[in-house]
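It would be a great kindness if you could assist me with a short task in structural biology. The matter concerns a single protein, recorded as an amino acid sequence and a row of backbone structure tokens. The record follows directly beneath this note:
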Amino acid sequence: MSTSPAIIASGGANLASLCFALDRLGYEAPVTEDAALIRDASHVILPGVGAARDAMERLAKANLIDVIRDLRQPVLGICLGMQLLFTGSDEDDAACLDIIPGRAQRFDGGPELPVPQMGWNQLRARGACQLLSDVEDGAWAYFIHSFALPVGPYTRATTDYGITFSSVVEQDNFFGTQFHPERSAGVGERILENFLRIS
């Protein structure tokens, strides 16, 4: 297995900032749809921006759905990428990877809670998690999303936005952040570094 991480090419606009964040940490990660490179990577990152159904169709076209499901190295889903790890999404009734049981639901919103949630919000730790090592409870991270996952046995941190939702998840070798660590300053840098240190 390679000692380098890989980023799955998901078509999201955040790929450049994610690559830059990894570069600052001393990692060069190819952005790829190559199944062999993904299987051989030390760590795999699944980013995502946009609609769940479109993202799943892109993964299916690249023949990556079973590849991702079968990965045994640490995998990190970011934003939509985290939602794709779950069973499905209410967004266009999308079927997702079904690695973690659960379904993303749209925020109800309101005059004081515009949808999407866009900006900084706090993380509240919920059990031990390698991703959150040396991250203070109540730390701030940058979010932009209209759908969110409920709290479940996979939840390692929550955030409040009208409802309490999962902002960090973990199941076996699969991890997820609903926020964008690559846009979350020092907190996000620490979380990415923690992920890349998981063996």
